[in-house]
Amino acid sequence: MKLKFIITGIVFFIYHISFSQNIRHLDPPNWWVGMKDSSLQLLIHGEKISEYHVTINYPGVSVYQISKVENPNYLFVDLIIKDDTKPGMMNLEFSADKKYFVQSYELKQREKRKMDYGLDQSDFIYLLMPDRFSNGDTTNDVNYSMRDTLHNRKVLTDRHGGDLKGIINHLDYIKNLGATAVWCTPLLENDQPSWSYHGYAATDNYKIDARIGTNELYKQYAEKSHALGLKVVMDIVHNHVGLEHWFIRDLPMHDWINQWDEFTRTNYRTFTLMDNYASEFDKERMSNGWFDKHMPDLNQRNKFLAKYIIQNNIWWIEFLHVDGFRLDTY
């Protein structure tokens, strides 16, 4: 009887793990209790994940709506998190016919900020490009699991090896210059085949590039900056991502990005959007044209994408205690 119970448990464990692997991405990767907005929309990506029904049995949390879209590999699950919900691990239960698996999801306690949000005209902002600033960890210069493995300081378009550790090592230097804030160009994963050093073609909105560091190291950088009285400015891009972004390689829906019959580049004429006499042709090219062939233009008119971007910004504020955003393009 005991042996039978053990075997049954092993079979269930293997069954559970095999189906958990259906989930490739779950964004945001966690959330917080006590937020002013009680709503949370989960983007769930996995092989034919839309075949599943999702339920949650956690005090204070309820499923408000489940949305299936064009691509069966996506589900959008809207949750309501009550004000008195306690932090902890909750289970997302997925069921479809005889299939069943559980995915854990963490609700964290919000941390109190030690500094006020925001910058003003009194701030002296120091701008740096992480890959070109200082190489504090030579072990992450090349990552052979990523597409761009070129590392050569003599070549302008190759990676040069700068990273978060290098920035942390020189925070005292920046402070002594009289700076009150540090603006790093984007540090998010840029798993592009070339030109990945600049950081403006993200391939994962919730992950720091492995050649720059880790999410936890980014948090340490923010904590050390704040300890020195330096504000942290995060560079974000709402307009586009990299062509190798996982949600571009497997689009949730056709209008997730602005699409054209053939590649159409933006005209970069920003003034047309404020000009009452500009042509609609110029305005559309400016707003909906791609920044470059490897930078697809995001369609923020899509309500699911808009929610994804907003929640991503909020996530970084809570995780990093960022003081301000520099919005690159939108």
Beta-strand portion reads 15-25%
Total number of domains = 2
Q: What is the typical, i.e. mean, pLDDT?
A: 92
Give the CATH class of the largest domain: Alpha Beta
Tally of strands: 14
The CA-CA distance between the termini, in Å, is: 63 Å
Specify the helix fraction band. Answer: 10-25%
Uncertain stretches: 1-19
Element-by-element helix/strand order? HEEEEEEEEEHHHEEEHEHHHE
**Largest sheet composition:** 4 strands, antiparallel
Named CATH topology of the largest domain? TIM Barrel
Roughly how many Å is the radius of gyration?
22 Å
Strand order of the largest sheet: 1-3-6-5
Secondary-structure class? alpha/beta
The second-level CATH architecture of the largest domain is Alpha-Beta Barrel
The dominant shape is globular
CATH superfamily of the largest domain: Glycosidases
Count of DSSP-assigned helices: 8
Key terms:
2 domains, 330 residues, 8 helices, TIM Barrel, Immunoglobulin-like, alpha/beta, 25% strand
